[in-house]
Amino acid sequence: MSSQRRRKTTAARRVQYGALPFRLSTSSRPQFMLVTSRETRRWIIPKGWPKKGKPPRHSAAREAFEEAGVVGAIAWRSVGTFSYEKRLKNRRRL
Fold first, then answer.
1. Which of 17, 22, 29, 36 has the CB geometry, 3.0–4.6 Å to 59, for a possible disulfide?
2. What digits encode the pLDDT tens for the residues 11-67?
């Protein structure tokens, strides 16, 4: 087996910030907004790359507006994180 095949590839870790839009119903239970992408029509969480000098919550709010037209209050703290392997069109992974 060649050294190229044995060598493990480690993906670079890249950070994006996203928004999980919701509202409280009259019973104070959260109702989460479902969003689909324009291109693939798959269910998504609006997310995108950070802007230099801006806090993560501003990036999340911008993406919620750009991808879903959502405007609202932004939490100061994150509710969590999520990791995944992104497959690119040329079959590379990030």
1. 17
2. 667 889 999 999 888 888 899 998 988 888 889 888 889 989 999 999 999 999 998
More confident residue, 8 or 35: 35
Residue 18's identity, in one-letter code, is G
- SS3 string, the chain, reads CCHHHHCCCCCCCCCCEECCCEEECCCCCEEECCEECCCCCCEECCEECCCCCCCHHHHHHHHHHHHHCCCCCCCCCCCCCCCCCCECCCCCEC
CA-based torsion, 45, 58, 63, 53: positive or negative: negative
Q: Is the pTM of this model over 0.85?
A: no
Q: Quick check: 94 and 14 in contact, CB under 8 A?
A: yes
